[in-house]
Amino acid sequence: MKYLIGIDEAGRGPLAGPVAVGAVMVPADFDWGVLQGVRDSKKLSEKKREEFYTRAKELEQTRVLRFTVSTSSSAYIDTYGIVPAIKRALAEALSRFDIEPHDCRVLLDGSLRAPAEYIHQETIIRGDDTEPVISLASIMAKVTRDRLMKRLSPKYPAYAFHLHKGYGTASHLSAIAQWGLSDIHRASFCTRLPIGSKSV
After folding, report:
1. Contact between 76 and 92 (Cβ < 8 Å)
2. How far is residue 8's CA from residue 15's CA, in Å, rounded to a whole number?
3. Going by C-beta distance under 8 Å and a sequence separation of 6 or more, which residues neighbour residue 179?
4. What is the dihedral of CA 158, 155, 167, 35, to 10 degrees?
5. By CB atoms within 10 Å of each CB, which of 69, 75, 168, 170 scores lowest?
6. β-sheet bridge partners, residue 69
7. pLDDT by residue (tens digit) across 67-88?
8. Which bin fits 110, alpha (ψ -120 to 50), beta or left (φ > 0)?
């Protein structure tokens, strides 16, 4: 086996914005000492996630590591559902590596599955906390998605996406109740919410 690939998603649960799938590919004999302390993105501070992201970018420059993050939009999620949206982004992320499926071992978090042609794949419950390659994939997906939501925030000032990244916080729910849904909200996730009708 030449390569090890880790895959995880970020943004399955938010009420707005895309879902992101991160994929990290390293040589089979990769030395994780160069990324000491990498773990599940949810257990790291934003500052620490950004540090690991920067370090991974540096390693990518030296060809030691490769990563990609693919997203499916809120519109895609509303049309096809969250599971197909994740599946589509996952397949796209893997395809960007342009490698032979039988040359790599793919480790995936939780309930994720790679396309069938990746015959050496394993889905690991809580893999983002036990497998460094999955942990790094979760960090890359989370940082990429968070940065996207921050960039979108000025376009939708009523919702403060830069603060909650689209998750259903009290302030976000309050904004929806007052202003209604923006065009990046997942309408299918908001069917039971009080929704206002003021134009933003």
Report:
1. no
2. 19
3. 158, 159, 196, 198, 199, 200
4. -140
5. 170
6. 22
7. 999 999 999 999 999 999 999 9
8. left
